[in-house]
From TrEMBL:
Residues 63-139 form the Pirin N-terminal domain. Keywords: Iron, Metal-binding. The keyword Iron applies. Its cofactor is Fe cation. This is Pirin. One of its GO terms (molecular function) is metal ion binding. Belongs to the pirin family. Binds 1 Fe cation per subunit.
Length: 337
């Protein structure tokens, strides 16, 4: 292993990340046709309903009982960045905010002092399969920000900056900027109390697509920055003479620009970087704090308040089938795409 590479790991469903990130969940489901109620037309026989992560026939129900997804559950002390490249997600939360987003959109949610939300995957297409491809990244919050008000922000696909580079042989790489900057191009602003809101933290979240045999460069970051490249689909890559197969992550050295040479197939990558918090992490399910006492307090608070209660008729709330992409925020502000 060369000096450019710190570690290489195989990928699974839940990807191991470096501080300030907690982990990344990667979902790629080829759901069947939907019925009129947005549930799978193929039925749910032989599935462990409420806990189906089987991948049977290329898809899972997760915790959903009718529509696939994740019914109402709490978060506190960190942020979720949900990047939906294909398919749609129905969001509902305890603050009264709601939305349907996907097909290139990203939702940035700072849980802060606490929020309960659901993420359901409505199967709107009744004639063809409903493909869902998403990444959910958990970004930690520093101790000083773990009690900020919960906030949810939409980054619509049409507004997310994309950078295209061409190597010496004319082969192209496309970089979609969810956070951070590439060259002179910056991403959209994250949620206001996000750890990524301070440029000094050098948080970067990029989706990268490289042509076969294309080369692209990851710019150097400052000393102490953690950065990882997740190679989730393709053939192989070469970094400094080290050949790496797809379905692996690579932790990279920081104080140098790094050239990645793609193999003979189109390569797909997620890139994460950021200055580490270097704080103690104590996690209990969806609560991420700095001590066991704070975890106990978080659990008791949720039991007492439900982080505002659940204003929807079901913990598996979905929006009307006729709805397009939209967001309604807790303050009543509405976005329609």
């Amino acid at each position: 292993m060369n000096a450019t590479i710190k570690a290489i790991r195989p990928l699974g469903f839940q990807w191991q990340t470096q501080d300030p990130f907690l982990f990344c969940a990667h979902h790629h489901d080829f759901f069947p046709r939907g019925k009129s109620d947005m549930s799978p037309a193929d039925g749910l026989e032989n599935r462990m309903i409420g806990q189906d992560f089987s991948g049977k026939d290329g898809w899972s129900m997760y915790h959903g009982s009718k529509v696939p997804g994740f019914p109402a559950h709490p978060h506190k002390g960190f942020e979720t960045v949900t990047i939906v490249e294909k398919g749609l997600v129905d969001h509902s939360d305890s603050l009264g905010a709601a939305g349907r987003f996907g097909n290139g959109d990203t939702q940035w949610m700072t849980a802060g002092r606490g929020v309960m939300h659901s993420e359901m995957f409505p199967l709107l297409n009744e004639k063809e399969k409903n493909e869902l491809h998403l990444f959910q990244i958990w970004l930690n919050l520093p101790k000083a920000s773990k009690q900020v008000p919960a906030h949810f922000k939409m980054m619509w696909n049409e507004e997310i900056p994309v950078v295209k580079t061409t190597d010496a042989n004319g082969r192209q790489t496309t970089i979609k900027l969810i956070a951070g900057k590439y060259g002179n191009q910056g991403a959209l602003a994250p949620a206001p109390d996000s750890y990524a809101a301070n440029p000094a933290n050098e948080v970067g979240i990029w989706l990268i697509q490289a042509d076969p045999e294309a080369s692209f460069t990851l710019p150097q970051s400052s000393a102490g920055t953690n950065r990882s490249l997740f190679f989730y689909e393709g053939d192989f890559i070469d970094i400094g003479g080290e050949r790496i197969a797809d379905a692996h992550s690579v932790d990279l050295a920081e104080e140098k620009a790094i050239t990645v040479k793609n193999g003979g197939q189109t390569g797909y990558f997620l890139y994460l970087q950021g200055k580490p918090l270097s704080e103690k992490v104590v996690q209990h399910g969806p609560f991420v704090m700095n001590s066991n006492q704070e975890i106990q307090e978080a659990v008791h608070e949720f039991q007492r308040t439900q982080f505002g209660g659940w204003p929807w008729e079901s913990h598996e709330h979905t929006h009307g089938k006729e709805k397009g992409r939209f967001a309604i925020h807790a303050d009543g502000r509405e976005e329609i795409k």
